[in-house]
Specification:
29 helices; Nucleotidyltransferase, domain 5
């Protein structure tokens, strides 16, 4: 396919014009990033957002993969001297990888089959007679006798028919229409059944699937992933069933072209053999793979949505935080960080079982709080967290200290603590203390801290270790890139891991920026990064708009306005009498002057597009704005609630910790998160996707509908 044909195909699939596809393809080939295109090239792309741009990028990648596979297949068939003009045209016109593999199947190099062995015995001419179905008179066995050859181990008519059947069955298996029709039957009408492995005696997490059956079009993604895991762990036996009689009739309708043929019975035998021995196992594998791919895609999207919401949680900046990493026998680690995240002090206390040194621990905690003016205690949610929470809450009540606490998801802290990034940051601290510092910093700026950790370890997904890891990594990298660039980074405080995700930079340049900052002092202009090795004009173009420099003499350096638009921004300010040097003190004036202007007319006057003008106006009104500022802050607590204190009908405020297909897990301040089931998210309508109602980090009001103290389960309803 030509580029024009490819762009037209993608245009049809994505409902985006071919011209836009072509433009985006050109930018991507030049090395432009998705965040840069989404923010600074709206005029050229027709206003495509990040999601649309990534869809175009992925579609272009698929077309490259398809083209490469076609090239390989054509070369292979050509080398076999079996490539006809008709087949070549079919392959070149193919737009589906599965159909492409069906076209290649008869020519695919494979180990010797039963049909191949039958051909070596000279039975292919008879198989061709059966396949052609042209002979309508005579005795089939008379034809079979001609092929008896004891030297080739074809000693009886039964041997002849068996060999011919093997050949015809393989032709049926390779028949394009047969495979397409049966694939459709499997995808629409197959039933997945699961049974418990009788050798499993202990209780498992798969008890819902010990006697389970569902049509494939009714299976939920989480059920598919659970079944896969149960099968992989040898707890479940899984089978796929279709209506065999109806399926064989469908195959007969395609394959049998002459009911009067004397070989019709032989064709029917071959159809049944092809289905049971070749097609059914092959299409069952294909179906299971397709279901897994669909479930993977859904699980990855869920993980990505949750991760995005988590990364965009509002920061509690400039607070002095004490991180508390709870444990039992080894004690609770304490780490104090200042308002910028700098580590100040740390130690270990033993308020939890088995030591229970509460009085001693209170003294140590009190001294740290007083010495460093601690405002907030961040308690990790790992083993011993609720005992640690009780200790902290009791201390606050007894001492009257002006401090509050919150529970922090510590997923990934241990991964960070053992990483090279952590060792480089804190070479003199042990791994446990490094992880505790991470817990404290997550409160101050979740995005800046969590980008240091492999996203798969952050713990806001479902079955994240079971899905396609390459696809998961790619999707999560997109999410991190999107979040970091949406917020922007302070060039004078950002860590190398955070800078790495800025549009166009990469790890090497990010590390060079930090090194330059450490040796030469802070940056005072965006242009200064051009002096860093590896930062040419193109890299600067891609990255500059996402960097913030509060210390710069040019106030535009602390906005999302790109340097290429500085001249237009200055002209706009001159046009409306705005003092560029004092933007913060002119908010009302800027809002009144720029709030209702004719953007089309002014954009033409400035020689820029309307999207660029709108971006300039937005940033002049709110210079240095962090998009996370408008979100709800996390709930801070000073006392603890026990499950025994809860009652059905009680209304509480909670924080959404994770969102999955069947609902959301909500922290309401007790040891166990409550489950807000999807069916309890609305009283007026059926909710199809929990993400339409809640997201990770949301502060919501809930009512307790069910309490099971013995099993530690809490049922919730959205109020």
């Amino acid at each position: 396919m030509t580029n024009t044909q490819i762009f037209a195909r993608i245009s049809e699939d994505l409902k985006i014009s071919a011209k836009q596809i072509s433009t985006v393809a050109g930018f991507i080939d030049e090395g432009a990033t998705i965040p840069f295109l989404a923010r600074y090239r709206k005029e050229a792309t027709g206003g495509l957002d990040e999601e649309q741009l990534r869809d175009v990028r992925d579609a272009l990648e698929f077309q490259k993969t398809l083209a490469s596979r076609k090239e390989t297949i054509l070369k292979s068939i050509k080398e076999q001297e079996k490539l006809t003009p008709e087949l070549e045209a079919q392959i070149k016109a193919c737009t589906d990888l599965t159909v492409l593999e069906d076209l290649y199947l008869p020519y695919k190099q494979k180990r010797k089959t039963r049909g191949d062995k039958a051909k070596e015995k000279g039975l292919e001419p008879l198989a061709q007679l059966i396949w052609d179905q042209e002979i309508e008179a005579g005795n089939p066995d008379d034809y079979a006798k001609e092929y008896i050859n004891k030297e080739k181990e074809v000693e009886t008519p039964e041997d002849v028919w068996q060999g011919a059947n093997d050949i015809v069955a393989e032709w049926i298996n390779e028949h394009l229409e047969v495979r397409e029709k049966l694939r459709d039957i499997f995808m629409k009408h197959a039933t997945i059944k699961t049974k418990k492995n009788p050798t499993v005696k202990e209780r498992t997490n798969f008890e819902d699937y010990y006697e389970f059956a569902a049509k494939v079009d009714r299976l939920k993604p989480y059920q598919i992933l659970a079944i896969n895991r149960g099968e992989r762990e040898n707890v479940l036996f899984v089978s796929t069933e279709v209506w065999e009689e109806r399926t064989l009739e469908t195959m007969d309708d395609i394959v049998i072209t002459n009911d009067m043929s004397i070989f019709t019975e032989r064709i029917q035998d071959a159809v049944e053999d092809a289905f049971k021995r070749l097609l059914s196992p092959s299409l069952e594998r294909e179906l299971r793979n397709a279901l897994t791919d669909q479930a993977d895609e859904h699980a990855i999207e869920t993980f990505a949505t949750n991760l995005g919401n988590l990364l965009m949680q509002p920061p509690l900046e400039k607070k002095i935080v004490l991180g508390l990493d709870p444990a039992y026998r080894s004690g609770c680690k304490l780490a104090v960080v200042d308002g910028t995240g700098k580590y100040l002090d740390g130690t270990t206390i033993y308020p939890t079982p088995p030591q229970n040194k509460i009085a001693e621990s209170e003294i140590v905690l009190g001294k740290l709080i007083e010495k460093h003016n601690v405002e907030l205690i961040a308690i990790g949610n790992g083993t011993g967290s609720r005992e640690a929470e009780q200790f902290v809450a009791d201390y606050i009540q007894k001492s009257g200290a002006d401090v509050s606490y919150l529970i922090v998801n510590e997923a990934g802290a241990s991964v960070y603590s053992a990483s090279k990034i952590a060792r480089d940051e804190f070479p003199d601290l042990d791994a446990a203390q490094r992880g505790n510092i991470s817990i404290a910093r997550r409160v101050q700026d979740p995005l800046a801290e969590l980008v240091k950790i492999d996203p798969k370890s952050i713990g806001v997904g479902l079955y994240q270790h079971d899905v396609n890891q390459n696809q998961l990594s790619g999707k999560l990298d997109d999410v991190v890139e999107s979040c970091v660039n949406e917020v922007g980074v302070n060039l004078n405080t950002a860590s190398a891991p955070l800078l790495t995700h800025i549009s166009g930079l990469g790890k090497r340049v990010a590390e060079a920026i930090v090194k330059q900052r450490e040796t030469s002092g802070i940056f005072t202009s965006r242009n200064e990064i051009k002096e860093i090795e590896g930062v040419g004009e193109f890299r600067f173009q891609q990255a500059a708009g996402f960097m913030r420099i509060p210390e710069s003499k040019n106030p535009l350096d602390n906005t999302a306005i790109h340097p290429e638009s500085y001249e237009a921004a200055e002209k706009l300010c001159n046009l409306f009498g705005i003092d560029l040097e004092n933007l913060s003190s002119q908010k009302d004036k800027i809002a009144s002057k720029l709030g209702n202007l004719n953007t089309k007319q002014v954009a033409e006057q400035l020689g820029i597009g309307e999207p660029t003008l709108e971006l300039i106006i937005e940033n002049l009104q709110k210079p240095g704005r962090d998009p996370r500022e408008s979100l709800q802050k996390p709930i801070l607590r000073t006392d603890v609630v026990k499950m025994e204190d809860l009652k059905e009908g009680q209304k509480l405020q909670g924080t959404v910790r994770n969102v999955v297909d069947f609902g959301a897990f909500v922290d309401i301040g007790v040891k166990q998160d409550g489950l807000l089931h999807i069916s309890s998210m609305s009283k007026t309508k059926k909710v199809e996707d929990p993400h339409d109602v809640v997201g990770v980090g949301d502060i919501i009001n809930v009512e307790i509908t069910k309490l099971d103290l013995e099993r530690g389960r809490i049922g919730l309803e959205l109020v």
